[in-house]
Amino acid sequence: xxxxxxxxxxxxxxxxxxxxxxxxxxxxxxxxxxxxxxxxxxxxxxxxxxxxxxxxxxxxxxxxxxxxxxxxxxxxxxxxxxxxxxxxxxxxxxxxxxxxxxxxxxxxxxxxxxxxxxxxxxxxxxxxxxxxxxxxxxxxxxxxxxxxxxxxxxxxxxxxxxxxxxxxxxxxxxxxxxxxxxxxxxxxxxxxxxxxxxxxx
Length: 201
What we know:
Blueprint: H1 27-35, H2 39-45, H3 55-65, H4 72-89, H5 95-114, H6 121-128, H7 131-141, H8 153-173, H9 182-198
Helix pairs in contact: 1-9, 3-9, 4-5, 4-8, 5-6, 5-7, 5-8
């Protein structure tokens, strides 16, 4: 969402254009997505950027950790494949979807191995130790992401394929459960009722 009112001199005294992307979910839909092995809502819920919290938010974060299964790998395998296709068919190609492809694969690997969400590519690469990622991130920070990508596409395709295989292998050997327990589903249902009742006048 780009609201022209945010570009008013009184709102942006230094002439900085403010662009705001806002995504909201009905709470019932959000809970259902948690139970459908959706990594996107896990990342939203465990983001370190929190504007406002509550006891219900804290309880939901704890319950979400119990919703993680080995099948979340499917979300990240599909997400990364879509990002790679976006990168491969662009003309000219950009760094951003390439970085997103690596980010989703490494987030998926971290989740399946540890059960924890980490979406910060810099932190993920401290463990992965892929030197070319630091270079790509530096290029993005310098604004080079707006310039045509001139790297070795064939090399990066092989790396994507290698990490994809690693995520598939991690899924197949993961210690994570295959399903969310009935107890967790019931606890989410109880929390949903609590939140809904609180919203009543």
